[in-house]
Amino acid sequence: MSKKSIYIYIISDSAGETASKLAQASVAQYEELDITFIRKTFVSETAELMEALEGALADEAIIIHTMISKEFIQVANAFCAEHDIFCMDLLSPLVNEISKRSTIEPNRIAGAVHSLNQDYFNRISAMEFAVKYDDGKDPKGFLEADIVLLGVSRTSKTPLSLFLANKNLKVANLPLMPQAHIPSQLWDVDPKKIVGLTNNPDILNKIRQERMRAYGLNPDTAYSNIDCINEELKFAADLYKKIGCVVINVADLSIEETASIIIDELDLQDFSFFG
Amino acid sequence: MSKKSIYIYIISDSAGETASKLAQASVAQYEELDITFIRKTFVSETAELMEALEGALADEAIIIHTMISKEFIQVANAFCAEHDIFCMDLLSPLVNEISKRSTIEPNRIAGAVHSLNQDYFNRISAMEFAVKYDDGKDPKGFLEADIVLLGVSRTSKTPLSLFLANKNLKVANLPLMPQAHIPSQLWDVDPKKIVGLTNNPDILNKIRQERMRAYGLNPDTAYSNIDCINEELKFAADLYKKIGCVVINVADLSIEETASIIIDELDLQDFSFFG
């Protein structure tokens, strides 16, 4: 079992986010794997690229590259062919196919996906919006939001709001408690923009006990009591029914999965592409 | 110029995030392109996959797929070969190469990258941390944070904190103003965990005038006055020098680029891979 670590070099003339995503998704398919990631990003000179390639050769690495410079792509692909290095050129096949179909040449601007255009600033605004209108802080946000998330404590409202903000969507969220006041603005929001989040009582019970323990408190408080949780969930379910909104049980869903379902259910999918 | 839209089908047995990233990065290389994205994600049955493939065929689409089910991959690749559809199978080459080198078989669990494991819950905690300790709300966060961001208004502190949180890093941020009090906790933080953000005065001037206009106010207030901005930037620069922290000028950088620089400078890069 004293195998050598597998080296994966991520080489990019931009931030290398696409290659990182691919590497993460692939590595997640293995329980125990000794992987060393080396990131060589924002490569801007051939010498820098050569240094990265020589490093990969020395480490007998797998190379995943996302480069848009024609020269860099040629240098990298030729080097890998010559030295028989396993190399994935992620951008070229798709860019070449799009150019063939559209008869338009790519700009070949490194990091174009991060260009500081209007979409980019809208995304920053969406993130600031999510922080400003998190946790029901200001119900005025409901009327400006693309999505209003409702949910009892521990249904992932905050991370979900932030994840959706990164896709250029303005999200406000409101925690639900039976004794809490429902702001009147909620009734002015189009129910098609509202998502009711729920969870399984036993999961909430477990999560909340953990949370109390983490705070150094007695785990068996009203917050984690199963009858109280059931009462909260019933209150939430009744409210969702009254509003007529989409309801999602997040019990077995990750943030990414829940976000994807929300985008589909609320017919918002286009937003997620032009961030 | 009445060309047909180019259809890109993103097909995945998970959320399709890797394929989306690739599509975005490629499309960003073209100024004007009529692209229609169709997402068929969380595919769980062969019939569903066939429907997606038939749709792609009818739309003469480009297919990008990220699937881990062996059966789905075979069905998709065979269908595309038969009908001469341009198809990128993103996961297979890398997964096959990793298996070859490690002699370990992949789990082939769809969405494994989103599994609700400890890393996942840590990432959620990191997001909640970023919201809790945004905008200097509670200086106690400085001591628990992996990164403390300092910066005058409009240096991207909030979106940067959230972006880094999504990479499993706990970030607190503090806005700097000459008249503001610097919390004493800041001096107890390891300077190697602190990042001073700055920007060009003319850019801040422009952004802040815009912001005032957006609020329906006179754009020429002290907030946007160039002398005041220079004074703020000098105050920040002096503080950064006193602390001895990394300084980053975000003027020409996107959030992704700034985050990547921070991860490299603070030697945190491993965190970004196991989210």
Automatic annotation (TrEMBL), chains A, B:
Q: Note the Pfam families from the entry.
A: Kinase-PPPase
Q: What is this protein identified as?
A: Putative pyruvate, phosphate dikinase regulatory protein
Q: Which residues bind ADP?
A: G151, V152, S153, R154, T155, S156, K157, T158
Q: According to the UniProt record, what class of enzyme is this?
A: transferase
Which UniProt keywords are present, listed alphabetically?
Kinase, Nucleotide-binding, Serine/threonine-protein kinase, Transferase
EC number, UniProt record: 2.7.11.32, 2.7.4.27
Listed HAMAP family: PDRP (MF_00921)
Give the catalysed reaction(s), semicolon-separated: N(tele)-phospho-L-histidyl/O-phospho-L-threonyl-[pyruvate, phosphate dikinase] + phosphate + H(+) = N(tele)-phospho-L-histidyl/L-threonyl-[pyruvate, phosphate dikinase] + diphosphate; N(tele)-phospho-L-histidyl/L-threonyl-[pyruvate, phosphate dikinase] + ADP = N(tele)-phospho-L-histidyl/O-phospho-L-threonyl-[pyruvate, phosphate dikinase] + AMP + H(+)
| PANTHER family given in the database record | PYRUVATE, PHOSPHATE DIKINASE REGULATORY PROTEIN 1, CHLOROPLASTIC (PTHR31756:SF3)
Please state which protein family the record places this protein in. Belongs to the pyruvate, phosphate/water dikinase regulatory protein family. PDRP subfamily.
Checking InterPro entries in the record gives: Kinase-pyrophosphorylase (IPR005177), PPDK_reg (IPR026565)
According to its UniProt entry, what is the function of this protein? Answer: Bifunctional serine/threonine kinase and phosphorylase involved in the regulation of the pyruvate, phosphate dikinase (PPDK) by catalyzing its phosphorylation/dephosphorylation.
